[in-house]
């Protein structure tokens, strides 16, 4: 049986204190919405922001998206008390640096799940690597709790600030850090999200063409996780991370050819300049699984939107 | 008969599951025959089928084994013990059979340092077919995702453990079975430039490009020799570095030049002993 | 925040009288007097005799002064080097934490016998083997004296048996590991973007500036310079530019206004400004001030000495 695959192709991170973002979130077509308590919420509004999460979870999931919350690195206890409610799929923990931090999160979440009638183990932990200490401890962090299912980071603003580098300089500055994080993820059978480097010297967050190109390139390298800040990138990311029909067709053909090969005395064959072997077959199977999973997810979201619209928003 | 330094007899990748019992039969005879041709002979064995595979291949003419699809230190320990036992039973000097660990899974790469020091038999590390086993695919640049990191990590770990890193720097769409001789040569050249010392390949016509790519060229050797002479003259005259145009050559550069010269002469010696073996002349033990 | 500004560190063989005499005029933040690879073994004893005066001379332009010692002659070299004006020593060929502890112990003794406050002398570590790269974390953690750590890529090449080619960088992993582990430990990584350290050369100022800027954007905090011609470009690259200072000053203003208006995410010049961007702006502005202070110190010293 393939492991249960989360579908997180596209998502928007938004300050939970900005009603116009939160109220429209369900119409965006995202796979997930990440409600932010951290960087986009001013310090003096943190307490107020926490009180909004419970309703916001119900609000943003109306279109079938999963609800995540990004908490503050230094306000773990209070933030978790305010956000672990039925419907929350994941807690994103920024600047993870030590396994002990994740274990502490796990303990508090476990207690809150019990107290609030949520099935044990429902709430995932997103342990995001954003500092050099985090990279140095990547494997320990990733293996600190079974709630960690996706693992990535080691790029972005926080990482750049920690290393003291400017971003968008046109070459890959994070090969080592991303490599450490991805290797840890793969060794632990977690879903990696350390997309391949694509030169970006503008820093623009709302360019749909770039978003599609990056998502497509990431998918072709085997990645499935996206997310962004601007509504313009949602549709291109969803599309970029979904296998197009011609690739699905190609995968079916590979599997057919592999079935023929299995009945022969060979372990591989060259067909039309391509190798067919057990690795290509495994790759094709994975693509077909992913394609089916995406289709199912898209249907779920469409149904949810239809239901919500029928009920008058 | 190819001119490869090593012949690797595979029991893992190119033998269908149902044919493995017959492949194991008579493997010793094949090892002996090939050894007479002058190449060192290794057998590629399955990390999950160590007992059967090792019983089939161990003989005095075998140099060592490559363990494919390695996942843990425990598998190295198992292979080490089995090899020791078979050496004792079959009249082979205890501890002589080598192990090349093929780090094809993420688990094995994560544990690379521990694996490299898990047995004194470990003589080399390779990524084997990691890009297939780990399903790593080409990036838009043509580089295979994560491979630059994995290759350099493996070379550093190998250097740290004092064992030999094997591999070549492939770029999409090249891949073992489809790579042209020319692209194989390029992969070998790039591989040598980052620290690999040789690579496994699958086709006869890839052997020569590999040998060439991993051997310093006559031009490189010439340059290295000239540089070293000039540097030594300067040092005995009391200088610490020499300038050529805008380049500065110092103690580090002289060490690099020495690397080229040593490597080239080791290759020449090895070529001669291979030729002697082919011609039936006696060959000293490697 | 206290920021160590040691952007450029000029290497000078202590036996080269002319280089030593002129080193202080080139504007480097630090000068390292070499007793190791830059000195032929036959001249080593003689070279030690030269260090005391050289430390004084090298410090005339307010540069920090280091001495690169021989790992095999640690005590004799340190003994020859610890004079007023010395900031610390550069320890090459570090293989293990024990090497660093040994050097630190030798410095303890030297501080005690020469009446220097304990723990004052700094260490710059050079890693030159694959083993050192793998053990970098323990090595850095071995002494509080460690202020910077770098890779000697030239010796590292020889150690792993490569003759590097300019197109294929063999040290993406090693360099990245040193930058990350040093930063994680609160120590400055120093180093240069490929291929300049494996193949040192003199470059036109513009090209050197590009290499130095790339080096900064890999996470390094400074460059060890084999030649004075590198220094000006290196200092420029590791100093925030005027336009950066302008932009980040605006960033701080725009962000402060946003916070006052109740939001912590605000668009500015096509990007989203939030807490990490504002935090980064603080770092850039503080670095700019620290660099200005350092440059003023050096200019003042230079003017006083020349005049």
Summary keywords:
heterotrimer; A: 313 residues; TIM Barrel; 2 domains; 7-stranded parallel β-sheet; 9 strands; globular; B: 286 residues; alpha/beta; two-stranded antiparallel ribbon; 12 helices
Give structural notes.
The complex is a heterotrimer of chains A (313), B (286) and C (307). Chain A is an alpha/beta fold. Chain A contains 12 helices and 9 strands. In chain A, strand 3, helix 3 and strand 4 form a beta-alpha-beta unit. The radius of gyration of chain A is 20 Å and the shape is globular. The two termini of chain A are 38 Å apart. Chain B is an alpha/beta fold. Chain B has 2 domains: 161 residues, TIM Barrel (Alpha-Beta Barrel); 61 residues. In chain B, 48% of the residues lie in helices and 13% in strands. The longest helix of chain B is centred in the last third of the chain and has 28 residues. Chain B is globular. Chain C folds into 2 domains: 230 residues, TIM Barrel (Alpha-Beta Barrel), CATH 3.20.20.60; 65 residues, no CATH class. Chain C contains 12 helices and 10 strands. In chain C, helix 2 packs parallel to helix 3, helix 9 packs across helix 10 and helix 11 runs antiparallel to helix 12. The mean pLDDT of chain C is 94. Classes of the chains: A alpha/beta (313), B alpha/beta (286), C alpha/beta (307). At the A-C interface, helix 5, helix 7 and helix 8 of A face helix 8, helix 9 and helix 12 of C.
């Amino acid at each position: 049986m393939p492991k249960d695959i989360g579908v997180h192709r596209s998502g928007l991170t938004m300050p939970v204190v900005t009603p116009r973002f939160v109220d429209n979130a369900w119409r965006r077509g995202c796979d997930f919405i990440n409600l932010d308590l951290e960087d986009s919420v001013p310090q003096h509004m943190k307490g107020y922001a926490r009180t909004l999460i419970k309703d916001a979870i119900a609000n943003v999931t109306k279109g079938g998206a999963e609800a995540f919350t990004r908490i503050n690195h230094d306000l773990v206890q209070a933030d978790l008390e305010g956000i672990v409610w039925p419907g929350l799929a994941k807690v994103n923990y920024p600047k993870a640096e030590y396994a002990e931090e994740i274990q502490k999160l796990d303990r508090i979440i476990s207690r809150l799940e019990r107290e609030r009638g949520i099935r044990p183990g429902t709430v995932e932990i997103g342990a995001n690597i954003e500092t050099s200490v985090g990279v140095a401890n990547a494997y320990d962090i990733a293996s600190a709790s079974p709630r960690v299912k996706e693992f990535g980071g080691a790029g972005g603003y926080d990482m750049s600030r920690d290393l003291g580098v400017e971003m968008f300089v046109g070459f890959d500055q994070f090969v080592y850090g991303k490599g450490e994080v991805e290797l840890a993820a793969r060794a632990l059978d977690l879903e990696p999200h350390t997309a391949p480097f694509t030169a970006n010297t503008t820093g623009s967050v709302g360019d749909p063409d770039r978003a599609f190109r990056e998502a497509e390139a990431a998918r072709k390298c085997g990645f499935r996780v996206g997310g962004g800040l601007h509504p313009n990138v949602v549709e291109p990311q969803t599309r970029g991370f979904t296998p197009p029909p011609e690739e699905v067709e190609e995968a079916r053909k590979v599997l057919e050819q592999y079935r023929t090969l299995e009945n022969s005395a060979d372990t591989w064959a060259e067909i039309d300049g391509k190798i067919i072997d057990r690795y290509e077959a495994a790759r094709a199977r994975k693509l077909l699984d992913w394609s089916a999973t995406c289709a199912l997810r898209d249907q779920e979201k469409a149904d949810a939107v239809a239901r919500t619209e029928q009920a008058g928003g | 008969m190819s001119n490869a330094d090593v012949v690797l007899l595979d029991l893992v990748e190119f033998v269908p599951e149902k044919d493995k019992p017959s492949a194991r039969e008579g493997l010793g005879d094949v090892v002996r025959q090939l050894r007479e041709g002058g190449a060192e002979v290794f057998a590629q064995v399955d990390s999950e089928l160590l007992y059967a595979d090792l019983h089939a291949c161990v003989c005095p003419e075998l140099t060592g084994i490559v363990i494919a699809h390695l996942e843990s230190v425990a598998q190295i320990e198992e292979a080490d013990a089995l090899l020791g036992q078979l050496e004792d039973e079959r009249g082979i000097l205890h501890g002589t059979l080598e192990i090349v660990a093929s780090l094809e899974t993420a688990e094995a790469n994560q544990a690379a340092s521990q694996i490299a020091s898990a047995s004194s038999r470990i003589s080399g590390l390779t990524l084997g077919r990691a890009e297939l086993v780990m399903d790593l695919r080409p990036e838009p640049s043509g580089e295979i995702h994560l491979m630059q990191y994995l290759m350099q990590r493996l070379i550093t770990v190998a250097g740290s453990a004092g064992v030999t890193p094997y591999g070549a720097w492939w770029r999409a769409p090249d891949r073992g079975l489809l790579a042209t001789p020319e692209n194989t040569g390029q992969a070998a050249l790039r591989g040598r430039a980052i620290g690999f010392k040789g690579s496994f390949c699958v086709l006869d016509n890839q052997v020569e490009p590999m040998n060439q790519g991993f051997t310093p060229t006559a031009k490189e050797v010439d340059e290295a020799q000239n540089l070293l002479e000039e540097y030594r003259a300067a040092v005995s005259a009391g200088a610490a570095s020499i300038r050529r145009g805008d380049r500065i050559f110092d103690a580090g550069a002289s060490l690099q030049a020495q690397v080229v010269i040593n490597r080239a002469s080791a290759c020449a010696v090895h070529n001669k002993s291979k030729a002697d073996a082919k011609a039936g002349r006696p060959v000293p033990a490697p | 925040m206290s920021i160590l500004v040691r952007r450029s560190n000029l290497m000078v063989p202590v036996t080269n009288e002319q280089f030593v005499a002129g080193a202080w005029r080139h504007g480097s933040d630090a000068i390292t007097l070499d007793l190791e690879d830059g000195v032929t073994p036959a001249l080593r004893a003689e070279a030690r005799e030269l260090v005391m005066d050289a430390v004084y001379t090298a410090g005339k332009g307010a540069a920090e002064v280091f001495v690169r010692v021989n790992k095999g002659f640690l005590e004799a070299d340190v003994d020859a080097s610890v004079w007023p004006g010395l900031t610390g020593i550069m320890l090459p060929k570090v293989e293990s934490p024990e090497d660093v502890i040994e050097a630190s112990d030798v410095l303890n003794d030297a501080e005690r016998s020469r009446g220097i406050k304990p723990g004052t002398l700094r260490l710059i570590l050079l890693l030159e083997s694959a083993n050192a790269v793998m053990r970098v974390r323990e090595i850095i953690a071995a002494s509080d004296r460690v202020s910077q750590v770098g890779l000697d890529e030239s010796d590292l090449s020889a150690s792993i048996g490569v003759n590097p080619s300019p197109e294929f960088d063999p040290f993406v992993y090693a360099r990245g590991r040193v930058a990350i582990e040093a930063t994680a430990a609160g120590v400055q990584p120093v180093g240069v973007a490929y291929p300049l350290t494996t193949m040192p050369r003199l470059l036109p100022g513009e090209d050197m500036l590009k290499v130095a800027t790339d080096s900064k954007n890999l996470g390094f905090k400074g460059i060890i310079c084999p030649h004075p011609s590198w220094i000006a470009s290196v200092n420029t690259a590791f100093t925030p530019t005027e336009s950066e200072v302008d932009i980040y000053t605006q960033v701080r203003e725009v962000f402060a206004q946003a916070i006052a208006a109740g939001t912590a995410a605000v668009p500015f010049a096509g990007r989203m400004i939030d807490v990490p961007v504002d935090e980064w702006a603080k770092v850039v502005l503080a670095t700019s001030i620290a660099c200005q202070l350092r440059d003023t110190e050096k200019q003042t010293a230079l003017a006083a000495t020349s005049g």
